[in-house]
Design goal:
The complex is a heterodimer. Chain A is mainly β. In chain B, strands 2, 4, 5, 6, 9, 10 and 11 form a 7-stranded mixed sheet that branches. In chain B, strands 1-3-8-7 form a 4-stranded antiparallel sheet, with no helix packed on it. The radius of gyration of chain B is 13 Å and the shape is globular. The chains are: A mainly beta, B mainly beta. Chains A and B meet through β5 and β9 of A and β5, β9 and β10 of B.
Chain lengths: ~110, ~120
C-alpha cells in the first residue's frame, strides 16, 4: 500500500511561473514531512520540511502548505527558474520510518 | 546542512565480482543509516536500515547475503554487493539521520553500479 501519494508525475512550467506539487498521506502518526530535490545522477537533497503543527512554511521561493485534516501537503515553487528543473520527492516519516512519494519531474521552460 | 559522503560515484565491474560502497557522515554521528536502490525515473526503494554496532535490518525481498551491510562506526556504513550480476546494476544511495533533534534525513550523492 502506497503510504504517500504524489502528483503530478510530471510538470512543465514557464519561467517565472508557480510550480505546485501535491502529496497525500494515510497514516496520521506521521510527524515530519520533508521535500527533496534530485538532479540526474545525484542523491536527493533536502529542500524544506514541515511538522504537522504548522500550516505553512516558507524558505525563499519554496513554500510548504500543510492541511492536517485533509492529510495533504504541497510544495509551491514561486518564480520558477530553469535551474529548478529536477525531480521532487515528498516524504512522510515517523521515527526511522520514511515513506517517499513516487516523484515529480519538473521542467521549467525558459 | 549535514553532509553525507558516498563513494564511489560510479563503478563498472565484471559479473561475479564484489563491489563495496562507502557512506560516511562527515560532520555528525549517525547511529542509523539507510541504503536505497533507485531505478531510472522511479522513487527510492529502501533496501535496509543499518544500525551501528548491530546487524542491519533488511526489507522484504532484499537478499541479506547478496547485499552485505556493515556499520562499524558512528560515521561509516558500507554496502557490499557480492557476486554482482547485470540485474544488480542500479543507482544505490545511502542516507543518514542528523540535524537538530535528529529528524532530518540527509542523502549521499549516490553510486551508479554497472555490472557487465
Amino acid at each position: 500500500q502506497q503510504q504517500v501519494k504524489q502528483s503530478p508525475q510530471s510538470l512543465i512550467v514557464q519561467k517565472g511561473g508557480i510550480s505546485i506539487i501535491n502529496c497525500a498521506y494515510e497514516n496520521t502518526a506521521f510527524d515530519y514531512f520533508p521535500w527533496y530535490q534530485q538532479f540526474p545522477g545525484k542523491g536527493p537533497a533536502l529542500l524544506i520540511a514541515i511538522r504537522p503543527d504548522v500550516s505553512e512554511k516558507k524558505e525563499g521561493r519554496f513554500t510548504i502548505s500543510f492541511n492536517k485534516s485533509a492529510k495533504q501537503f504541497s510544495l509551491h515553487i514561486m518564480d520558477s527558474q530553469p535551474g529548478d528543473s529536477a525531480t521532487y520527492f515528498c516524504a512522510a516519516s515517523k521515527g526511522n520510518q520514511f515513506y517517499f512519494g513516487t516523484g515529480t519531474s519538473l521542467t521549467v521552460i525558459p | 546542512g549535514a553532509v553525507v559522503s558516498q563513494h564511489p560515484s560510479w563503478v563498472i565491474c565484471k559479473s561475479g565480482t564484489s563491489v563495496k560502497i562507502e557512506c560516511r557522515s562527515l560532520d555528525f554521528q549517525a547511529t542509523t543509516m539507510f541504503w536505497y536502490r533507485q531505478f531510472p525515473k522511479q522513487s527510492l526503494m529502501l533496501m535496509a536500515t543499518s544500525n551501528e554496532g548491530s546487524k542491519a535490518t533488511y526489507e522484504q525481498g532484499v537478499e541479506k547475503d547478496k547485499f552485505l551491510i556493515n556499520h562499524a562506526s558512528l560515521t561509516l556504513s558500507t554496502l557490499t554487493v557480492t557476486s554482482a550480476h547485470p540485474e544488480d546494476s542500479s543507482f544505490y544511495i545511502c542516507s543518514a539521520r542528523g540535524g537538530m533533534g535528529n529528524e532530518k534525513l540527509f542523502f549521499g550523492s549516490g553510486t551508479q553500479l554497472s555490472v557487465l
